[in-house]
């Protein structure tokens, strides 16, 4: 048994862009928090190490700077989470504050010889990710300025610390800085790569949806043109049939002429329905109907189209309502027609409601569909134009629904189950 779910267009492009931008603001706050926590953690570890190996460098001044930096990290994260910045300027100022705080801390703990001086690259790397290039240039110049000042005003090592011990302390700090930088690169670059893949997938889906919409519009224009062109020939044939019915020499063919007249009337009704559906689709006219009432409307249309078909309908539909229009009715009827062609002995139609989703299933006993996603593109058909399933899928997606197919290729219950899922609304909404 295989199940295929059709990708639906659940949000329009504007909603996608809004969601992506809000996610970007939250991600920016997380990046900044990660950077600042990393810097503060390294400052605390360095102070703890200096307290045992070089106590003169671990005085109260660097401790106060570390505490102030930690408080700034917490306050900025809370502010950016509750008030996401719409401009890059607040982020730029916060990165500049990080550089100044780190520069002061480095000046108090060894200056340019402090192995943690490489932490000056963290605000710079974060700025390249979060802010425009011109703002990143300012951060770069500030980082270079801080490092230059540390070089111009060196801090001599403590007198009671030997050169070998000082070098060992320096090497340990370099190792810690490298490990921290590698971890941050793993987290940040991995997150950015994941976001890039998600954006590429979203763009691909948008292109597919736009292409499908263009195909639907083209098919709709073609259908309207065909309906207009067929109107005159149908009227002409109707007049000819009426004349033949009145002719004495055609009395023997009266039953055939009555059948032909009935079929011509059915063609006119279908053309009228197609025209009305096109108008309603253009005006985006939808209505909310109880599921039982919508099912009854579908049943009446199916009985008119296939009076001799065996279609088993549910007796007690669940209490729910759905938003429908004429094009959705035609989409469901197209699926019923496909099921009847695959299973002339009869089909089953079922309805259910689960998790605020109304489901309408069409079950046939045919050979089963091919192992592909149905309804994504027009296909070749031996019994039609090959666009019915494509149009049905596009219509269902336009109304926020989803079309899926389940093929049963083995056993006595072989066949296909087509499932239409639509957003369910309350019965009260249907009567408003």
UniProtKB/TrEMBL annotation:
It catalyses: ATP + protein L-histidine = ADP + protein N-phospho-L-histidine. Its EC number is 2.7.13.3. The keyword ATP-binding applies. Residues 225-426 form the Histidine kinase domain. One of its GO terms (molecular function) is phosphorelay sensor kinase activity. It holds the Pfam family HATPase_c. The keyword Metal-binding does not apply. This is histidine kinase. The lineage of its organism: Bacteria, Pseudomonadati, Pseudomonadota, Gammaproteobacteria, Pseudomonadales.
């Amino acid at each position: 048994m295989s199940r295929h779910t059709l990708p639906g267009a659940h949000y329009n492009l504007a909603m996608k862009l809004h969601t992506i931008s809000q996610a970007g603001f939250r991600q920016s706050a997380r990046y900044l928090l990660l950077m600042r926590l990393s810097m503060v953690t390294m400052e605390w570890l360095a102070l703890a190490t200096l307290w045992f190996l070089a106590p003169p460098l671990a005085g109260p001044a660097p401790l106060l700077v570390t505490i102030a930096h930690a408080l700034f990290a917490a306050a900025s994260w809370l502010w950016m989470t509750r008030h996401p910045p719409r401009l890059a300027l607040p982020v730029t100022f916060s990165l500049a504050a990080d550089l100044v705080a780190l520069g002061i801390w480095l000046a108090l703990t060894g200056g340019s010889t402090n192995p943690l001086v490489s932490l000056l690259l963290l605000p710079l790397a974060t700025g390249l990710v979060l802010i425009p290039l011109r703002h990143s240039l300012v951060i770069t110049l500030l980082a270079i300025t801080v490092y230059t000042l540390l070089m111009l005003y060196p801090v001599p090592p403590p007198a009671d610390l030997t050169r070998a011990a000082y070098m060992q302390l320096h090497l340990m700090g370099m190792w810690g800085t490298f490990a921290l930088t590698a971890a941050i690169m793993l987290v940040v670059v991995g997150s950015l790569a994941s976001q890039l893949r998600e954006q590429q997938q979203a763009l691909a889906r948008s292109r597919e949806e736009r292409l499908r919409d263009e195909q639907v519009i083209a098919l709709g224009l073609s259908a309207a043109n065909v309906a207009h062109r067929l109107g005159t020939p149908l009227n002409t044939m109707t007049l000819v049939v009426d004349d033949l019915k009145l002719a004495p020499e055609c009395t023997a063919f009266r039953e055939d002429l009555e059948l032909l007249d009935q079929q011509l009337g059915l063609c006119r009704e279908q053309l009228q329905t197609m025209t009305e559906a096109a108008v309603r689709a253009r005006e985006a006219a939808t209505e909310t109907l109880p599921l039982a009432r919508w099912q009854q409307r579908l049943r009446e249309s199916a009985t008119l189209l296939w009076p001799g078909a065996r279609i088993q309908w549910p007796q007690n539909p669940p209490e729910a309502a759905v938003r429908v229009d004429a094009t959705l009715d035609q989409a469901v009827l197209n699926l019923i027609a496909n099921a009847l062609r695959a299973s002339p002995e009869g089909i089953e139609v079922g309805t259910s409601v689960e998790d605020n989703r109304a489901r309408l299933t069409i079950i046939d006993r045919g050979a089963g569909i091919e192992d592909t996603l149905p309804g994504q593109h027009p296909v070749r058909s031996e019994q039609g134009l090959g666009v019915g399933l494509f149009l049905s899928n596009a219509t269902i997606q336009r109304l926020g629904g989803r079309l899926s197919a389940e093929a049963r290729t083995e056993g006595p219950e072989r066949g296909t189950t087509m499932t239409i899922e639509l957003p369910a609304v309350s019965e009260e909404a249907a009567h408003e």
